[in-house]
Amino acid sequence: MKALLVERLVHRFAAARVAALVAGSGSGIGIGPLRLSEIEQPSLPGPSWHRVAPLLSGICGSDLATLDGESSRFFEDIVTFPFVPGHEIVGVVLDGPETGRRVVVEPVLSCVVRGIEPLCPSCAAGRTGACERIAFGGIRPGLQTGYCADTGGGWSDELVVHEAQLHLVPDTMSDEAAVMVEPAACGIHAALAGQVVPGERVVVLGAGTLGLCTLAALRCHTLPSTLLAVAKYKVQRHFAAEFGADDVVAPSELGRAVRRMTGTLALARTGAAIDRLAGGADAVFDCVGSSRSIAEALEVVRPGGRIVLVGMPGVVRVDLAPLWQREVALCGAYAYGTESVPEGPRRTFALAFELVEMVSLERLVSAHYPLERYEEAVHHAANAGRRGSVKVVFDLRHEDPAWRRAAQVAAPKRRVPRDDKKLETSA
Amino acid sequence: MSPRPGFVLEVDRSTPPTLFWHGEGFRFEQLPEGSRVVYPPESLDGLADPDAAIRHALEHPVGDSAPLSALLKPEMRLTIAFDDVSLPLPPMRRPDMRQRVVEAVLDAAAAAGVDDVVLIAALALHRRMTDNELRHALGDRVFDAFAPHGLLLQHDAEDPAALVHLGLTEQGEDVEINRRAAESDLLVYVNINLSAMDGGHKSVATGLASYRSLKHHHNVRTLQHSRSLMDRHHSEMHSSNWRMGRLIKNAGVKIFQIESTLNLDMFPSQFSFLQKREWEWSLADRAGFHSTRLALDHTPPRLARQIFQSMLSPYAPTSVQAGEVEAVHDLTLENLHRQQLVAVEGQTDILTMGLPYLSPYNVNSIMNPILVACLGLGYFFNLYRGRPLVREGGVCIISHPTPWAFNPVHHPSYIDFFEQVLADTTDMFEIEKRYEQQFATDPWYIHLYRTSYAYHGVHPLYMWYWCAHALDYLGGVIIVGGDRAAVRRMGFKPASTLADALEMAEDIVGRGPSITHLHAPPLLVADVS
Questions:
Q1: What ipTM was estimated for this complex?
Q2: Which pLDDT band, with edges at 50, 70 and 90, does A147 fall under?
Q3: Which candidate from B416, B438, B447 shows the least CB-CB separation from A256?
Q4: Are A127 and A203 in a shared domain?
Q5: Are the C-beta atoms of A142 and A150 separated by less than 8 Å?
Q6: Phi and psi at residue A219, in whole multiples of 5°?
């Protein structure tokens, strides 16, 4: 089957990193670790697993960071090579009682998925995103589908998915809406992790897919008095306003915008050019995850306020003096699980399905690419805002239908090779 | 030979290109045949002995007022308030007229044995003046005698302890002014009357007032019905100030008003061509213009700004009058009109104007886009008596670079107004309703107004309101040669050339429009029949 495969090739990661540093994200795709390959289909790890043929699979910011060679080495022990990326997936079930049904994949490979009993404390509490066993159990290490060699990923013709990961898609929901469920779940989890109290003033830094989903979730699930979005590009400003931001500003306007939003005093060494705010926003959601965005968050959060890291950070260099002196809380918001909402505990994905429909998040899907044009796709995703786009997806709906029919009849016998075995590529 | 009056030229084939101010530069534009150009009168001769004229005015007051010397008593509290840095434009060469008048008043006070004297810069909600600016306005002798002892104050409209509420006018307008001024035995107000808008009761009722008081006449409705701001008898803003002024008088505040008018010698000799009509330029004028233009074309904008901002005017006073406020102001208007009034027959479809680098609110600063709009639509558009130069539904074409640039020290709330408010709406009533309180009460703006050199937080809104009459009346506004994004942010149309702008204007006013160019500065007031 066809798949985009990431191999552990250090020199290629290094080349991609240099290219990204010199020419921007996505520039090193041709020399980086990603290759279009013909590989064996992944085998089913157990009886509760099913084959799924992706229909649409999104390109996420964390995927881009990986392909740019900018991911933290923290992840080295919780991914296995070679892996097929792609964790924003809507696909068709190819076997079992739900054969032919469309599903969204919840990609976290938690205790249940790994067949681990008893569940770790996090999974037992419903916080599957914080699973303590993501390197253990019946499949090899991998924090999510799309980072584990045993499961495959969405950027391929087929992957294997545990039944606990499957969410049936209503017939009325489009593929484009369904592929937005996973990022929407991330946004909801982040919004609720921020513990926004009614009347608080909130800032969302970044208005890519994750920023916009977080913004929409904050508007739907919390009651801030003012929601300020920071958006770099026109398309982002448009959607930020659509999704309920009270004010949308350019990154260069952030300090002044937060100052006027909060009415705080400011410290200005040069007359009235703002150097630092005396107060600031109650909560800042950093949906970028760079050194700069974290520093900006620290500049505009009030003493005693909260910063929620939503965008995936890597190794960053930040002056933490303000965090210390102003007693700012810094927390991460990764993935999803079970959320406490007024009607009781609910799965984040259930809330995400509702959010997608409520806000029509399918509008964010701006471009479709076949796997063969992966270089263009990745480059487009890395420059989405500049090109007037938000979410770029691989479209696998036009892949060989004959193969699909065959796949529904008989499970293939080929296997994905282990770890560092060199693969034949079609590049 | 007496100075020639103002003049309306009809452009024909032999008319040379017309000079347009364009910020810190100029444009030379060939107006279509049949266009009119309104030129100001030539500059009047200044008073032969200004100091003697001042002394004469102080001792021969007009209206119901005793001579100044008779009003001064040894044990009294005397306050001298004076116009701030916004006047005159450009700043005049030393000695500034305020210095001459204040020194004369202080001489009289000293002769009468008055010890308790305080000087107050009547800032209203303008920025504080720097020490250098105060020195320039008042002279070293006055500054050194008063400033070190804390007797040279700047009105603080945000200091509750320094304000006193004198009551409500018959229309329910709060009158709250500077406490020291109100509680003095005599308040002497020293004006420089560059335009007909200034002076009269506006001096104290605006210059020494608080936001609580100012909001009654600095609002959209009032300014929309001030037709024009240069004609106090048809200006709601002035009517409100006059009501307040009369209340101040009835509350027992004794005011001795001193107003002075200036001639139109605005520019030093190297820029003498700016005072002349183009076809009368001498060879030296042409050389001066072209060399200036060439130099400016190769000068970085920041440096060009510094050069222009350092320009001082050789203004000369043409009259001084003192005494009771209303009588003094009536005389002032007569003298102003003698210098500035130009008879113009009929209105025009398109009014063109070139705006200079300077407005009342960017002395030693940047002329930001809000101030461009304010100068063009608030001031120049209002340079009329009778009817506007342009017909209702007509188009105003403004030439100015309109940079998206702000002085963060002087105009901090302008930046926020431009970034936040105008990005949201340009509708004045909407802005007034949704944003005025926020900007007027923001503690940071108040802090900067009181302790730094910042205009008050609400000031950019007022400057936007200043355009209320024009924007309610005009069919369109086009800015030539401006920063396109900045122009669009204000809801106006950008054009690269005057020819483009005229073509765009025809879409609004129809084919074959009449065109009139306001050749200012120097200032003029069109008396439109």
A1: 0.77
A2: very high
A3: B416
A4: no
A5: yes
A6: -70, -35
pLDDT, tens only, A240-276: 999 999 999 999 889 999 999 999 999 876 655 677 8
**Residue A38 pairs with which residues in a beta bridge?**
A2
State the residue range of the domain holding A287: 195-332
Averaged pLDDT score across all residues of chain B: 96
Separation in Å, CA of B416 to nearest CA in chain A = 7
Structural domains in chain B, CATH included, are: 7-43+340-528 (3.90.226.30), 50-262 (3.40.50.11440)
A220 and A326 both lie in a single domain: yes
Residues of chain B in contact with residue A268, where contact means CB-CB under 8 angstroms, are: 408
Q: Which residues of A touch B415 (CB under 8 A)?
A: 256
Structure-derived torsion over alpha carbons of residues B201, B205, B206, B208, reported in degrees to the nearest 10? 120
Largest CA distance in chain A: 74
**pLDDT, position A419:** 38
Contact (CB<8Å) A265/B447? yes
Cβ separation B438–A260 shorter than 8 A: yes
Evaluate the omega torsion of the peptide bond into residue B5 and state whether it is cis, within 30 degrees of 0. no
Residue at token pair 């709406």: B425
Pairwise CB contact (< 8 Å): A273 & B408? yes
Q: Which residues of A touch B (CB under 8 A)?
A: 247, 249, 253, 256-257, 259-260, 263-266, 268, 270-274
From chain B, the residues in CB contact with A259 under 8 A are 416, 444
Chain B residue at shortest CA distance from A264: B444
What is the predicted pLDDT for the residue at A411?
Answer: 40
Does A126 score more than 50 pLDDT? yes
The residue of chain A nearest to residue B449, with distances taken between CA atoms, is A272
Helix locations, B196-324, DSSP H: 202-207, 211-214, 220-224, 236-250, 283-297, 301-309
Verify whether the Cβ–Cβ distance B412 to A263 is below 8 Å.
no
Query: Same domain, yes or no, for A178 and A200?
Result: no
Query: Helix, strand, or coil here: A305?
Result: strand
Residue B302 has pLDDT above 60, yes or no: yes
| pLDDT tens digits, B409-425 | 999 999 999 988 999 99
What pLDDT, on the 0 to 100 scale, is given for residue A271?
A: 55
Q: Is some CB atom of chain A closer than 8 A to the CB atom of B26?
A: no
Domain identity same for A142 and A241: no
Question: Is B460 near chain A, with CB under 8 Å?
Answer: no
Give, as one character, the DSSP assignment of residue B418. Answer: I
In a domain, A166, yes or no: yes
* Residue B409 forms contact with A (CB below 8 Å): yes
CA atoms of B462 and B165, how far apart (whole Å): 22
The whole-angstrom distance between B162's CA and the closest CA on chain A is 23
Best of B364, B411, B419 to disrupt the A interface by mutation (most A CBs within 10 Å)?
A: B419
The model's confidence at residue A105, banded by pLDDT at 50, 70 and 90, is very high
State whether B443 and A265 contact (CB < 8 Å).
yes
Query: How many Å lie between the alpha carbon of B440 and the closest alpha carbon of chain A?
Result: 11
Tell me which amino acid residue B353 is. M
> Average of pLDDT values for B427-441?
97
Domain assignment of residue A416, yes or no:
no
Q: At residue B348, does pLDDT exceed 80? A: yes
The mean pLDDT value for B433-438 works out to 97
Residue B463 above 70 pLDDT? Answer: yes
Percentage with pLDDT > 70 across chain A: 92
Residue B509 has pLDDT above 90, yes or no: yes
Domain shared by A301 and A258, yes or no: yes
If one counts the domains in chain A, the total is 2
Burial of B419 (0-12, 13-18, 19+ CB in 10 A): buried
Same domain as A167, residue A59: yes
Same domain, A177 and A50: yes
Contact B443 A263 (CB under 8 A): yes
Is position A20 within any domain? yes
C-beta of residue A88 within 8 angstroms of C-beta of residue A58: yes
> What are A199-238's pLDDT values in tens digits?
999 999 999 999 999 999 999 999 999 999 999 999 999 9
User: Distance between CA atoms of B385 and B328, rounded to whole angstroms?
Assistant: 20
Averaged pLDDT, B320-349: 97
Cβ count within 10 A of residue B154: 16
Query: Smallest CA–CA separation between B268 and chain A, in Å?
Result: 32
